[in-house]
Write a structure and sequence with these properties.
Structural class: mainly alpha
Number of helices: 2
Shape: rod-shaped
Largest sheet: none
Amino acid sequence: MDINLTLIGQTIAMIVFVWFCVKFICAEADEIVNDARKQATSILDQAHARANEIVSEGKSDGVKERERQITAAKAEIEQEINKAREELRGQVSAIAIASAEKILKREIDDKAHEDILGKLAQEL
């Protein structure tokens, strides 16, 4: 194989082509990779910020739900207390009537009984 001017020309053309590719195409690829890294970092920062925001919202929602449940529990306790008071008033009235009947040694009619119970309940 003889080395002639064509082979030397092709070699020079190949060297210029490789230099061009390295100089411009690889440099552009590096810029694209760097831009992609910057975008990925930005996306990760946004994701972390959103995650922190979601955690904060969850905490505030939890506090609101806790307060709502406490309020509901207090209302239920108040209702139970009132119910127990009414039952206790009824029982005290019944005991008072029974005691009065024993003291008086006679039976009180139903209407009088209801009137007395109503008055006692109002007094209590």
